[in-house]
Amino acid sequence: MKKVFILIGIFNYFLNVNGLHAQSSFLPVNLGENVNSSYNEINPVVSPDGKTLYFNRVNHPENYYGSYNSQDVWYCELQKDGTWGPAIRFNNFINSSRYNAIIAISEDGKKLLISGNYTRLSKWLSPGLSIITKTGEEWGNPEKLYIKGLKKFIKGPGFNATISKDGSFIILAGTKRGSSKKLNLYVSAKQTDDSWSKPVSLGEKINSKYSEEAPFLTNNNETLYFSSNRPNGKGGYDIYISTRKGASWTDWSEPKLLSDTINSPGYESYFKTTKKDTYAYYVSSNKSYGGTDIYKIKLKEDAPFLDLTGKIINSVTKLPVTATGYNILVNNKKYDSVSINYDSASYKGRFRLGKKYVLMADVKNYIAEPLEIDATNIKEYTEDKMDLYVKPLPYVLVKGTFIIKSTGMIVPPIAKPKLFVDDNFEDNVLLKGGYSDSAKVDISRATYTVKLPYGKKYILMVNAPKYIGEPDTLDLTNVREYQEITRPLYAEPEREVVFAIAQMTGKVINKKTTKPLTGAAIAINVDKAPGAEYTVNTLTGEYSVKIPLGNNYIVNALSSGFYPIYEPLDLTNEKNNIKIIKDLVLVPVQVGQAVRINNIFFETGKAILNPKSFPELDKLAKFLLENPNIKVEIAGHTDNVGKPDKNMQLSRWRARSVEQYLEGKGVPGDQVTFNGYGHTKPVASNSTPKGKALNRRVEFVIKEVL
User: Fold this and answer.
1) Which of 293, 547, 627, 637 has its CA 20 to 30 A from that of 206?
2) Same structural domain for residues 68 and 127?
3) What pLDDT, in 10s, does the model give residues 33-52?
4) What digits encode the pLDDT tens for the residues 675-697?
5) CA-CA distance, 536 to 493, in Å (whole number)?
6) Containing domain of residue 687, as a range?
């Protein structure tokens, strides 16, 4: 275990579930006469480097529209003594309407999110949001953000917003009533085409029957500040804090009132924290020069933490790992303040001081090398770079199938095949051998897996009574990393070995025409017996296939442009040769064709899928993924037993369960829909148990072929 000793200072957070603690060293400070005046100053926005303060002055005589119904953007520059210089009014290309505002500034200071929509000549056109980009020393023309349905949410006065640090979410305060001063908070998400989704309410915990406005989202995208006039405050408008729960943007903690240090009986709003959440700027009417002034308050000691960054490195190759989906564990647990960039194989994390930490990269097929961080003797904020190392698993995973070379069929389960492994290699002669402890054999499928340490040569072979295995040489002497290798292993009968079989015959039927399919290339597939012998007469559509006894199989026909109906075949209890007559059905891939999904099971009276259904649904998912041009509807049906409305609901829920399973397998949401039809579309009479069973079904209907 690597140990790193870091000296960092003690810190103290002053924000908890009850808000900011009032302490004498953490009192608000009025920004002074250069910033604040006898008019209302609102909406402070600090540049990423902390050197420029943008804000709004309301009804100031120097505003574009003068002292009546006007709100312009002003700014101050930070002086060498730490004070703010005289306020300067921003250029008219921003201050061209009655209500102008800078909402946010990008990390590089080259993009401004502003209030309003503008013409190409930078003339204010209508309420909304726009982006201005700086090239060199010049600001470009405002570019409108296309938020779906935004006009419905900004009909009243006081529209304002905040944007997430990564630019993916906007929380806006608006109202759907033109005469209402009551605002609520809504969230909009950026789409792949750079448009924005229709705003959605943040939920009943945030939005009340009173007004919620001036939202601000901190850098972690989880903490929200806003102002509200709800009755549990100190009076007027007060500032509240809430935390987002999980990944949802509509599930928030109960808002908490910030402390008396900030909130007063007057007006408080526009609470915004700095980049590292060390300070906050906000607006208050308490002890102001007139109207509302801008204040600054310290939230915590300056950067009282460790910021750690680094790469995730393969300790053998010394290169960044190429895996994805792994976690960084801190003291054997996931740590919320650690983020990972899989593209660059890098991480960054923020750690409280005064503790010890053990970091590990939990990467599949690698062994983590723990990194110990000792931060117990901390004195000040520290940034450091520490790479995390992982060692690839010291073996290769070899897998494959036992196959009879002359026929292509698998070695039957009755032969009980084993895997023989020899790591003593000389002139292709087996000297000694045995069975690896890591070897696993599934005799029903005739498959195997085995873990073999790299750096050696091996001989692998099928070992089964009355069969002669063909030795296969596997050279791993130059392998240095974990990998997976597929190797079929072949064998031949020692002498003629006769095993009992099932001979299955019938016709391949086109479901649409109900006639044999002729003139097309047709293959017969037997799951768990990929080498099964078969013949197909393309003139008559007749087929014949030989299948070994002793297993459960799924049999289906295959032909281009058709979807197969999978037929289960249980031969586990058969001992002697048998003949089976069964037609195999193929459904043409055409609009309107319905395919019954066999071998699908639900809990009685419920929409919960039984795991026995998964193999069939996996086949459907594979078909849809391989044919993205096909769109289908999952349709649920019932018999006529029970109340019609209950049947309709149950059929819809079951169809939805299938649709959700397919999406979980990667099928795009726009490729599959669902619906329930209850007992309105029977395929047989409900007067018999057999007919009812046929009517209780889930099928998919081809809706579109692009």
Assistant:
1) 293
2) yes
3) 999 999 999 999 998 888 99
4) 999 999 999 999 999 999 899 99
5) 27
6) 594-705
